[in-house]
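user: can you give me the structure for this one chain? tokens are fine.
assistant: on it. calling the predictor now.
[tool input]
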Amino acid sequence: MRNAITFACGKDDKLLEVQLEPEALIFRVPPGNEITFTGESDAGSVEWSMQFYQAENLVQLCPASKEFFDIAIYENGVLLDDWWKYM
């Protein structure tokens, strides 16, 4: 997947939370699972910036693009059709 970023939790890891900005939606990644965010724009390039909060086991994910872009989210390789329900 182009412009994709994946967060994976090992079976012995603690639960990881990924906060997607600017909506501040929180996606939980339990041990043994992964979540992938992909960005698509007319320019073809979506950049990502991240902040890690180790004490909270939280990653703040911020998509950045000068063009309009769409985000698709996959949980364990399966497209989440209704991810906006987290809003």
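assistant: here you go. Strands lie at 4-8, 16-20, 25-29, 34-41, 47-53, 58-64, 69-75, 78-79. Residues 4-86 form one domain.
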